[in-house]
Amino acid sequence: TYNYSVKTNWQDGTSKTDVVPATILACPPTLTAASGCAADAPGGPKIDLSWNNLLGIQNYQIYRKAQAEANFSLLQTLTDAFYTDYLVQSLEYTYFQGGQVSNYVKAIWPTDQKDSSQITKDIPQCPPFLTVQSNCDEFSIRLSWTATKDATHYNIYRDGVYRDSVVGINSTSYIDYQDLSSCPGQVCSHTYYVEAITPGSTLRSNEETKNINCTITYPPSTPTLNTPSAFCSAGFSYIHLSWTPSDNVSYYVLYRDDGITLTPLQGIETSRDDQVQSNRDYTYYVEAVGRGGPSLPSNTQAITSVSCTTPSASTLSYSKACQTGIPTITLSWTQTTNTESYEIWRGPSSSNLSLLTAFDKTAPEFTSRIFKDANLSPSTTYYYKIVSKGPPGVSSTNSNIISPTTDSCYPTTPNLSNPTPLCTLQNPVIYLSWATDGANTTRYEIFRQDVGLIKTIYPTDPEFSSKNWTDNSGLLPSSPYNYKIDAVGNYDFQRATSGYKPVTTNNCSPAGAFNLTDPPNL
């Protein structure tokens, strides 16, 4: 809110300053989206989102509805005005099936929020993104790539010559075993690319050149352990781990801080730890093992396993208010167990609710469990519920549904007392007074029916609190007048009027000269 003032100066040196508050409107972000194919790792289809950066913003929330999903869900919370959604990572098991992705951005201020328009993009068909590793344990070069939508098979090329093919859209790896004819002396270099064959086109991957030298037995290169994820499946707690591939590897060994070791299959860079207890901290690292011995240990990653119990139900309550002429509803809810995020759903009826906003553990609202909804219409009933979201694979729980009706946010109608005629220095004046609690009132406007608006009283004026004013503006004696008072809210259309009340001025002229005679004798 900003205050604007107008200062009036008179020729006699006096002046008066009137101050009017104005609230700058919260405008929704303008979202743009572009779909494309990532030229660098991780490759595959991507959606680039960007929007205008807004003044005073607390953060932005990105919501997404992908492919067959029925509702939007929170994808990311951030303060930047751009984001790239790499679908190979965020839709790991379905990105190659095509379909559409819809997004919108929610701008969040401390006391308001606004949604951008929704933008829907087709998931593009992208060429394979190729990575290669050498392996002297089996004297081979291993290839892996991202899947391509509608691919029936993939052709593998080495040094520009067709080498082999694999069938199926998910057949995205190949081992090119070397021999002394293709790699004399076990030292050579090859360049590879992959073609995805679809019914309508052929899409070629990036080229990757790999050197291999198996005359010396090297230990595997050190893998990088990615951020693990915890989830539930069929009521059991699991931790999913993955890491970057190493050269010269026969197999990988995962180490856990409590002495448990997990040995995945040869050539597999993922593992699922099913020997975990709920709500327990674990730390992992991985080593690659080959003919040259083990690699150096990878980086460590810590994670807390999740409980697979359903979150408890919260109890939702509310309070109502008006903020600079805008109705607000403040929601508060009780804490729930085993909850990763809270979703607020709102709608025009209990059977027609949609996702309004969501708060994960990084949001202050997750801890305070208080949210002020200021994007509302006056005198309107809204329905709300809180959805407590558990860990992945755990069912959500709904709170009770509430149905508050917003306030009108109009000022309280002033009760104008009957105007009182008085005399001041032999001039007629009218004394006005009124009663009101002053709710939602930013100024009073006093009207005299013969001339219209004659006085505006602002909060800085003493009459604003005393609720009285005297009209001495050229009134005629013994003449009828009508007065009314309007209480005005934050917007000019927000008015409450007392209605006109009549009054007749006094004749304030002094009495004329007269002679007093003695009374007659009786």
From TrEMBL:
SMART domains listed in its UniProt record: FN3
Source organism, top-level taxon: Bacteria
Annotated SUPFAM superfamilies: Fibronectin type III
Residue ranges constituting the Fibronectin type-III domain according to the UniProt record: 219-312
Protein name, per record: Fibronectin type-III domain-containing protein
Organism: Candidatus Portnoybacteria bacterium CG_4_8_14_3_um_filter_40_10
